[in-house]
Structures are given as C-alpha cells and as structure tokens.
UniProtKB/TrEMBL annotation:
Keywords: ATP-binding, DNA damage, DNA repair, DNA-binding, Hydrolase, Metal-binding, Nucleotide-binding, Stress response, Zinc, Zinc-finger. One of its GO terms (cellular component) is cytosol. ATP binds at G91, D92, P93, G94, I95, G96, K97, S98. This is DNA repair protein RadA. Plays a role in repairing double-strand DNA breaks, probably involving stabilizing or processing branched DNA or blocked replication forks. DNA-dependent ATPase involved in processing of recombination intermediates, plays a role in repairing DNA breaks. Stimulates the branch migration of RecA-mediated strand transfer reactions, allowing the 3' invading strand to extend heteroduplex DNA faster. Binds ssDNA in the presence of ADP but not other nucleotides, has ATPase activity that is stimulated by ssDNA and various branched DNA structures, but inhibited by SSB. Does not have RecA's homology-searching function. The gene is radA.
Length: 449
C-alpha cells in the first residue's frame, strides 16, 4: 500500500515543490501553486514484454488519414486526421471550440464514420439544441455525459467509434487520483490515460482545453508535450473571424493557419483570407501600408496602420497590436539613427488589421513605410505592397518565399511591389506588376516617399 503524500504544483507551468511558495520558481507566476495529494504507489506492470523490431521491417507508408470535412482544418492538421492520434484544441472559453468539433462530428458522420462525443461541460440537451441549429442530425454521433475517464475504453469497446471528442479535459477526472478535475495532476493523468487508449485502440481523439488567464483552471500548456498535435483557436470575441493555428504537430508542419468565420450557422471556411485583412474601398490616407506575411505555407496580404502624433505628456508612447512592441521600437530606432527623423519626440501607435499577430520579419519594411507615411503626412500609393526585413545598419535584407508572395500579390491585383535586392533570383517578367528592388532604407525612402 502506497502512502498519500501532498505536494504543491504550479497550475501555469507544472512546477512541483514540497512546500508552498508565493512565487513559482519555474515560471515566476505569483500565487499559482496549489496543493495536490498524490499516491506514491508504484505503477503496476500489466503488459507482457514485447520484442524490439528492426527499423527496416516497419512499413514506411504514411498513416492513412481521414478528412475532418473542413479542408482548411485538414490543412492545419497536416492533411487530415491520423487514426491513433491525440489532438488538443485549445482556446479561450466561448471562442467556438465546441461548435467547431460538433460541426466536424457532423461532417465525419455524413462520410459514414462513427463519433463518440463526451461532454462534461454541457448537458446533452444543450448539445442537441446546438446540433439542430447547425443542421446536424445523425444516428452515428453518440453523446455521453461522462466525466470518469477510466470508463472511456469501455464506451469505446461498446460503440466502436472512429473519432472521440472530449469536451473538455478540464472537466474529466481519473478516479485513481483524489485531486479535483482541472488540477494539474488530474489533467496530466487523464491526458496520459486518453493518449494510451488512442494509441492502443488506434482511435483519433480530440481534446478540448480552455486557456484561462486568471488561472482558475490549469491551462493546456502543461499538456502540450504529452499530445501529438496542438491546435489553438484564436480570435477576438467581438470579431467574427477565427484563426486556427497548429502549435505542435507530430504529423505535419506547424505554423499553418486557417481562417474561419463564426456565422449564424456555425463556422464557415474562408478560402481566400487575403480579402479579409484589407479594408474594402480603401481611400488614400497617410499611415497605411500593405504587407505580404507568410503564415505557414501561405502568404497573406494584410494592412498595417500607423499613427504618429506629437508627444503628449511624459515619455513617448508606443502602443502596438499585432506585432511585438520591441520590433516597432527597433525599427523606430533605425529610422531615427540612420535618417535623423525625430520619432523619439512623438507618440507612435501601430495596428495590424484583423486581429492577427505577425511574426514574419518581412513586414519590417511595411511597418517603416506606415510610420514614415504618418510622420511625414504623405499617403502611400494604395496599389503598392512592401516586403523586406530591415537590419540595424539600415540595409533591406532578402526574405524567404519571395516568389510565392509575388504570385499572391499579383493575384490580388496590386500594381507595384517593393522587394529587397536579390540579384538573379527574381523572374520579373512572369508578373504583371512593377517590381522595385531596394537595397537600403535610404534607397527605399528616395524612391517611395
Ligand atoms: P462555443 O463553441 O460554445 O465555445 P467554446 O466551446 O470554445 O467555449 O461557442 C460559443 C459561441 O459561439 C457563443 O458565443 C455563440 C457563438 N455561436 C454562433 O455565433 N453561431 C453558431 O452557430 C453557434 C453554434 C455559436
Ligand atoms: Mg465549449
């Protein structure tokens, strides 16, 4: 008989300590350590020994995937759902996780598959109501109001589903532990149990996980390393567009994104996202520039707006949404040092349209163009797209996937694009637009502003 011991676990990062601390040494969060009791009974081995297999005797075929019914979602998953995989769908409460998975269940059921939907959050009646609103009515979607994860394999044996949806991991528990559902040890234990079932029974499982900022429930961060795929569902609640982003994928590339729109009939795919991030009927105004940012394997054309105003009281303000604030500061410092613009005597506000967060360094040039355009009160031509990374020395550095970006810009009907100099690498003749190569900020400012 093992004895029960207690320990303190950080619900932000999973750090463990035998005594309570105000600040977590792992992630520096305050007040995040919760007491959990665990049994230190050793795990019992039940399985027989298995023989190791030589690598070349294993089949090298790609696992057969099946479609989620939404081609955009499939792309984020790396080409569809892999049987035997565990996929974590994380996101803020109310963002649409349950809606998305119920829709996927409906589409997969229509393709002749069986789905087990385990809900610990909503009553079956609530799910039924949502399903009828979404037009889903299949006899191969089985709903269950169950929170005990140890019974999962029995339900799977009975129903033989192809896909299992667990909504959400924070509401289920394993009776092997005494801690409450949603605590870090329960999250870990239940996820590991589900993972084992997924692998052993070769079933694909979606796990819903809430991300909460106030920390009342442990975030899915502590689960990321256990599962096969992590997909985050992001967006602003009062904005109808939602982004799906793969943060980890054992079966495909990460950083693929998909754009969905929340409508009265649930989530709808947006196959041509570039149209969404550009304001319709744009008029010429200073401070607006268009950039082509690579999001996964796809270039997106996005509008950046800057407002430079004379300094209010105190320190200059730098308010940014959609890019890292340090990047804006860096670009402002380069503009000030290399060209002598006195931006340190100004407040600078910068906004990326559509609520996306841009990490691609190629948007530097667009940021600089928007800031300078507002500072100098000179509107930029609205048929122009800016591509280029700015180095500290004021050079414009080459970017990756230039050809892909140019094709998208051409397709969207732009007439002019500013790109970094890349001798011999540009096939200008294949596009209908003017392509201007710039080598430095000086060169750029001379020809554009
Ligand atoms: P939900 O899927 O319950 O979010 P989560 O599971 O991530 O907590 O999404 C709920 C929100 O979506 C709710 O505010 C209502 C909205 N919604 C629509 O706008 N249209 C719809 O067709 C549905 C089903 C929900
Ligand atoms: Mg939900």
């Amino acid at each position: 008989m093992g004895k029960i011991i207690s320990k303190f676990v950080c619900h932000e990062c999973g750090y463990e300590t035998p005594k309570w601390l105000g600040k977590c040494p792992g992630c520096s969060a305050w007040n995040s350590l919760l007491e959990e009791s665990i049994s230190n009974k050793p795990l019992r081995r039940t399985a027989e020994r298995v023989a190791a297999i030589p690598l070349n005797q294993l089949s090298a075929e790609d696992s057969p995937r099946f479609s989620s019914g939404l081609s955009e979602f499939d792309r984020v998953l790396g080409g569809g759902i892999v049987p035997g995989s565990l996929i974590l769908l994380g996101g803020d409460p109310g963002i649409g996780k349950s809606t998305l998975l119920l829709q996927v269940a409906g589409l997969i059921a229509a393709a002749g598959k069986r789905i087990l939907y385990l809900s610990g959050e909503e009553s079956l009646q609530q799910i039924r109501l949502r399903a009828s609103r979404l037009g889903i009515n299949n006899d191969t979607i089985f709903l269950l109001n169950e929170q005990d994860i140890d019974l999962l394999h029995e339900y799977i044996n009975d129903l033989d589903p192809d896909l299992i949806i667990i909504d959400s991991i924070q509401t289920v528990y394993s009776s092997k532990l005494s801690s409450i559902p949603g605590s870090v040890s329960q999250l870990r234990e239940s996820t590991a149990a589900v993972m084992q079932i997924a692998k052993k029974m070769d079933k694909a499982v979606f796990l819903v996980g809430h991300v909460t900022k106030d920390g009342s429930l442990a975030g899915p961060k502590v689960l990321e390393h256990i599962v096969d795929v992590v997909v985050y569902f992001e967006g602003e609640k009062n904005f109808s567009f939602r982004l799906l982003r793969a943060a980890k994928n054992r079966f495909g590339a990460t950083d693929e994104i998909a754009l969905l729109e929340m409508s009265g009939q649930g989530l709808v795919e947006v196959p041509d996202p570039s149209y969404v991030f550009l304001s319709p009927g744009r008029d010429i105004s200073s401070g607006t520039a268009i950039v082509a940012s690579m999001e996964g394997s796809r270039p997106l054309l996005i509008e950046i707006q800057a407002l430079v105003s004379s300094l209010g009281a105190g320190y200059p303000r730098r308010m940014v949404s959609g890019i890292d604030q340090n990047r804006l500061s860096l670009i402002i410092a380069v503009l000030e040092k290399r060209r002598g613009y006195t931006l340190s005597a100004c407040d600078v506000y910068l906004k990326v349209s559509g609520g996306v967060f841009l990490k691609d360094p190629s948007v530097d040039l667009g940021i600089a163009a928007a800031v300078l355009s507002s500072y100098l009160e000179k509107p930029l031509a609205m048929d122009t797209v800016f591509i280029g990374e700015i180095s500290l020395s004021g050079q414009i550095r080459p970017v990756s996937f230039l050809d892909l970006r140019l094709r998208e810009i051409d397709r969207m009907g732009y007439k002019r694009v500013i790109v970094p100099t890349s001798p011999g690498r540009l096939a200008k003749s294949s596009h209908n637009m003017e392509i201007l190569e710039v080598k430095s900020l000086d060169h750029f400012i001379d020809i554009v502003l």
